[in-house]
Design goal:
mainly alpha
Length: about 475
Amino acid sequence: MSTAPATARARTGDLSRYAAGSVGMGLWVTVPGLLLLYFLTQTLGVSPFLAGITLLLPKIVDIVVHPFLGSRSDRQARRVGHRRGMLRHGLLLALAWTAMFTVPGGVTGVNAALWVGCCYVAGNLLFACFQVPYLTTPSDLRIGYHERTRVFMFRMVFLTLGLLGAGVTAPLLVSSGERGSYARMALLLAGVLVLSGLLAISGVRGLTRHCGFQPPAARAHSVSGDLRSAWRDRDFRALLLSYLLTGTTTHLFLAAVPFYTQYVLHDRSLTAVLMGAFLVPATAVGPLWLRLSRRTGKQRGLLAAQGLFLAGSLALLPGRSLGTVGIVAVVAVMGTAFAGLQLFAFSMLPDVIAAAKERGTAEAGAYTGVWTATEATGTAVGPYAYSAVLAVAGFSSATEGATVAQTSTALTALLWGFTVLPAVLMAGAVVCQLGYRLDRRAEAGPDPAPPPVPADATPPPLPPTPGDGPRRTRAPLREKES
């Protein structure tokens, strides 16, 4: 364990390698969220209701597992002085990823849903092994308030690159709609998952060596105790509920894009165009959101991003009457907001953890486990909510190569589920975020320095305490390599 000062500044090379891990994370989050619901209902012949259940149940497993992995990560960090062991398990994610899209020929309906669902459960468990310690890293470093935002700005840029690459490339690779094209797409992108994971592990090692590693306190605690402690934290609770609704909204948007382009715009090739319009701005506006954060604070920046996304959702309601250029422009604005949603929420999490550590009420891994479980919930609830809207409206599924006419009720629900429902969910996120108060205290700045002591002054003696004896200084723990 390094003894670097609390004001350490992360090196760009270490940050870049660490942030490269978000490319693979972006791929895993984007492609299933964007294509699985469409893959199930339009290629494998799974009904919208069953498809929604198939996407929801694996995330319920995540809700249980993530807090457990967070507590386990804390125990590992205390024992060996780092969290890289769990990160290495996440490298196996590429296997589950490939299997999930490689559905055997002739398997459709319920059997296809079972195949995809089981692979999705396995993939989510392996992803959690990587995600929990990876996102805990900024909370482990001995860095300050604004440096944590800088770390997450790097991560956001690489995450957006992963989202962009996956969001544009994957729809193009599967444009034929055949199940074989999905298998080829998965195999091609599996290498990206492995490479980004290896770079992330190298970056985490460099960051902890240069900036210092703060191991969790050696105290007895349980998973249930960690959950109760996290939920009692008012600022964490407000941020968590806000992020749950934000994540639900953005993943609903991703799942609905292919339906919007095919049934509202009548041009499925626009899926890649809209994903590009959504994600390209997000790669460029990170520094602008960071500048806004330094001027106004993270809380105001997050509220602004949420309001911008809400307005964009409603602006898409007119559909084709906006014209292709108008729709692309609105989606680009929503992509700009998306960058702020990611940057501020994830950079505020270490602030909450740091405040809880000062009170002695929490550990980083435990809070991060609850956070990632909430993120997993949002990734499931968003597509499930949209599939439920389609199912209630009578939307009909199809197998590869088949075209099914939809009723006017189904088409109306498809459009409103893509526009009005996200706006309502994001409004709920704004209400929850207003309960966050930590940023106000952070904006007050550090405590003022004590007045200077005259050079000829004699410092007063320290009062004796019971059991005083010769003080011993513990040598810093040396980080074990593994």
